[in-house]
Automatic annotation (TrEMBL):
Name of the protein this chain belongs to: RecBCD enzyme subunit RecD
Amino acids binding ATP: 193-200
Domain of life: Bacteria
Catalytic activity: ATP + H2O = ADP + phosphate + H(+)
GO cellular component, one term: exodeoxyribonuclease V complex
SUPFAM superfamilies, per the entry: P-loop containing nucleoside triphosphate hydrolases
EC number: 5.6.2.3
GO molecular function, one term: ATP hydrolysis activity
UvrD-like helicase C-terminal domain ranges (all copies): 547-593
Protein role: A helicase/nuclease that prepares dsDNA breaks (DSB) for recombinational DNA repair. Binds to DSBs and unwinds DNA via a highly rapid and processive ATP-dependent bidirectional helicase activity. Unwinds dsDNA until it encounters a Chi (crossover hotspot instigator) sequence from the 3' direction. Cuts ssDNA a few nucleotides 3' to the Chi site. The properties and activities of the enzyme are changed at Chi. The Chi-altered holoenzyme produces a long 3'-ssDNA overhang and facilitates RecA-binding to the ssDNA for homologous DNA recombination and repair.
Keyword check for Lyase: no
Family, as annotated: Belongs to the RecD family.
Record's keyword annotation contains Ribosomal protein: no
Gene giving rise to this polypeptide: recD
Amino acid sequence: MEALVPVAASGLVGAFAEAGVLTAADVHVAHRLGRLGGEASERVLLAAALAVRAVRSGSVCLDVRRLSEVTVDELSDDDIAALPWPDPVEVVAELRKSPLVIGGAGGPLVPLRLVDSDEGELLYLARYFAQEQQIRTLLDVRAEDVPRVRPSEVRAALDALFVAADGSPARAPDRQRIAAALAACRWTTVIAGGPGTGKTHTVARILALLVRASPRPLRIGLAAPTGKAAARLQESIDEQSGVLGLPPGPKAMTLHRLLGWRRGGGSRFRWNADNRLPYDVVVVDETSMVSLTLMCRVLEAMRPDARLILVGDPDQLTSVDAGAVLADLVARPVHGEIDVAVRELVSSDLDAASDPDEAALSAGEHRRLASGIVRLSRGRRFGGDIAALAVAIRDGDDDRVVEVLSSGSDAVSWRGSDDIAELRDDVVRSSANVTRAALAGDADGALARLEEHRLLCAHREGPYGVRQWARHAMEWVAADTGRALDPGGWCPGQPLLVAANDHELQIYNGDTGVVVQLPDGSLGAAFARGHEAMVIPPSRLADTHTVYAMTIHRSQGSQYDVVSVVLPEESSSLLTRELLYTAVTRARRHVRILGSEEAVRAGVRRRVLRASGLRREIRPYPR
Ligand SMILES: Nc1ncnc2c1ncn2[C@@H]1O[C@H](COP(=O)(O)OP(=O)(O)OP(=O)(O)O)[C@@H](O)[C@H]1O
């Protein structure tokens, strides 16, 4: 735990630091703001520190009415409830007269912004408020105008591209076809959907449609937040480009690369509001992992007359940095009507009754189409029980979750935390497979084998944490091979996790790789990049760990054949619906849950609080 308690942290702020809710950095920022702004109220300083903490833990702002809804590694709900939380009404009253919010005699410093919303007050650090406003404005401006398209051409392309296996037009309702019509007729489109709902399949067809309907060659930018996600996008588009007649060319890259990251440039990219991206269409995959700040940069860098297609799964855990932009966009209040052009192109889908495979569009879905948002719902990859489990978790139906877990399905298994025989077998077998390929110098093979099995935990520390379970896994592997692993050294087959972005090496926080033996006998660290692995000397890796187990947060954006999930005790505040959903949807073939029924049910019921104003109507204070 990072609870470094500074000597100066006393009173309310000190109590929260002591408990591990606030870090030394949160406390430091709050005290500094207090000193500079001439604010001594303990409640205001606590709110400021909690606002810093909120950003650190992924929210854009602090939901003042729900101050105490924090999740803390190692603290139970009861521990958290026992802290001396101030009354939110009093906090708001003091914030309304605080110089940190309304400005003071000391100068122009107004580091906090308070806004009212229908669901209560939100407290922002000024920078995040500005970014959120910028995103709101840019999206609204982009929605004021529409691309000029020839409906007959778009219709012909839709008919040709969205077909059933026998070549006839796909049956209505087909949300993929609706997504394509939206993307043709709007500058900004959001395509949401769980794993295997055909998001990438749809994107490839949208690109084919736009290429066909464009009188000149289209400049297409493909991007994702991580190198790995970009590589997956590339592979998927490449696989389909032959059939669809897509011109060769677009290379998927990380968002940082797309925006032109520059050393020493901070968050100032080569492509920005004054120097717009040179693309006609930009597709961003895995948008759930994009932070508020990065989304702001992307929108600023887009020409107003270039299409932006945001793709991702809003039910997943969100970016490590502040912001749940995709989920917010999907939940944003909607104004206006669905575009006439879209309605005419896909009226049969919009008005269709439910089909055995795909339900009719709900009233809420109809409304969201007006904002260019469509949610694909028909699972196309893993039928059956992983999808059923994911949907039950997403819907918060804990009885159904328990039912699916207990069904004896091939795709789902459920064991107690100490029933580890199968887990151990999977760890040992997949490690042996990875090591065999790594020793043979087969980087691609080793990377592929790395995806056979993954052990995931909610926590970093403690009896259910990554550290402990990674140690178990290493012991099992060592017992099997008769060779102890040196945690400080490098050896072929060693699984790696990158913990910080290195733009120069093009490896990113969350990337996973593996150590392989090279033909000259030296060792290389291999990372998946498109069709060919990128191999770099391990000595160049700065912030990289050996990873026999990883947190569920870290596993976002990756999938594995088999996933084993170690659940903490039911009282853990980290055990949430989003966490479980993310863990379960990492599995392609089989998901194994290790934990009690109480833990499963508690996880399904507990929600992550990701406060943001983007999904609400807000009124900044003072007006
Ligand atoms: N309309 C469709 N007809 C036939 N097959 C489809 C259709 N849509 C998707 N598929 C197939 O379903 C599988 C999953 O699709 P895809 O990879 O596009 O999903 P995804 O939502 O992008 O998944 P992920 O989030 O895991 O990347 C693929 O094999 C794809 O070819």
